């Protein structure tokens, strides 16, 4: 009897671990997909439509990042983009999961960005690395961290 009870306990523990692992795997996939799309959206804009573009992005951001993005966007990025007629397009080249749980995933992205402006007639190409934090809030993945590294 004691051995059978022990086997049931071990089987239950293994089942819970497999279930947790599957949930974390699903979280990684969902967060990476959403972050890839969001990062491209956040880093790509056209001076002609930048006000509406940034307003559309804001609900997809959470935590301190939302307030920071809103204020830096209004005070620095939008005025500068309009003045210099910036059009920029960002493409995620590669990504990697740094850490993950069921409701929070941290990723590292490699991004290529092409920018045109009144500063230069030819497109300027830049590559960068960005650490992105994603948090699940009410069933939706929102970006809560975006840090150049």
Automatic annotation (TrEMBL):
Major subcellular site? membrane
What species does this protein belong to? Rhodococcus wratislaviensis
GO CC annotation terms, alphabetical: membrane
Lineage, top-rank taxon, reads Bacteria
The places in or outside the cell where this protein is found are: Membrane
Q: What is this protein called?
A: Mce-associated membrane protein
Keywords assigned by UniProt?
Membrane
């Amino acid at each position: 009897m004691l051995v059978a009870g022990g086997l049931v306990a071990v089987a239950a523990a293994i089942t819970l671990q497999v279930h947790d692992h599957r949930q974390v795997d699903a979280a990684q996939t969902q967060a990476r997909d959403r972050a890839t799309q969001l990062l491209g959206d956040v880093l790509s804009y056209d001076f002609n439509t930048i006000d509406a573009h940034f307003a559309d992005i804001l609900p997809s951001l959470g935590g301190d990042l939302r307030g920071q993005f809103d204020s830096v966007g209004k005070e620095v990025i939008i005025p500068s983009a309009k003045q210099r007629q910036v059009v920029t397009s960002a493409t995620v080249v590669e990504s990697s999961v740094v850490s993950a749980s069921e409701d929070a995933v941290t990723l590292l992205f490699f991004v290529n960005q092409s920018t045109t402006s009144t500063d230069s007639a030819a497109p300027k190409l830049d590559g960068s690395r960005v650490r992105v934090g994603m948090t699940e809030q009410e069933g939706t993945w929102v970006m809560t961290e975006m840090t150049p590294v």
